[in-house]
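Chapter review: from sequence to fold.
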Amino acid sequence: MAEEEKVEQIVRISLYTPLIYVAVMVTAFVIFSVQYKRHRFQKLIQTESLFGHNYTTDLYLTLKDKYYDKSLAKDERPPEKAVKAALLRRAVEAIRRSLKLKENETVFNKLYQDGLIGDDIFKQYELQNKIQQVELNEIVAECQQFSKEWPEKFFPVAQEICFNEALRRRLNSMDARGEKLVEMWSYYVDQTEAK
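The token string follows.
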């Protein structure tokens, strides 16, 4: 009888094999995390604002750049009052947007809890809230560049302007609605008199 002897072979692994494995896994994880962050960043960039483009911010930044540009002649730079007025317009728009977001916060939360709006719209709302907070913080910092005491006086004035504009819009819409009702009423009166 020929017995086959079982020879156990010991597989020898190099010391570098686990190190290579760990290096490959770490590299794969780093590549995945970079791609994932890049993808999330692209989605954030492509997210549209709930309010549309903010032209008052663009106007202020343009005036501010020209105001602080030392290469321009003094008569070509905008006056300080124009820059402050543009900052005031920017603040009014930021306050208006913040008030709208706070006003609709319960509505968005309720709609999201009931499943009537998707995650993308709710994330858009949350992102807009964060953007508005950053915008207000930037405005405070810009105000402090002009004067340290200015933000204390600046925001009540901006809030007053915002409320006055809202009141003016409501009054104008009531006037337009009144004119439509007068036209409709006179049409019905003419129709009944013709019979």
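Two observations follow directly from the output. The chain has six helices and no strands. The two ends are 126 Å apart (CA to CA).
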